[in-house]
Design goal:
alpha+beta; 3 helices; 13% strand; His_PPase_superfam
Length: 118
Amino acid sequence: MPYQRLKGLKEMHFGTFEGESEDLNPKDKSTFFVQYGGESGDQVMERMVRTCTEIMEQDDHQNVLAVSHAGACIHFLRAWQDPREVVKNGITNCCVFKYEYDVEAKTFALLEVERHGF
């Protein structure tokens, strides 16, 4: 299986907080890191949607494994539905979100979430 690393799938950029303890994170992270050179939740969502759409629009990309971090995955999900129910049930390590891509509408629909207890 070919491997390609895409910066568009990385986790949220935390600006000067990058690499620091998560204990420093505020409760509402949606726009907090922008003032420190990081991204907002909406920016992460737009980046993830753009990157995943570009991937799916390539020839011979009907089945794709895209790997990212939980926060970025939640922001991606937020573009298509309210993520609260999924978040309420937990996002574990190696959690797999299975989506269907509509080529004509250029939209993703969540089909299932597999949670692993790693």
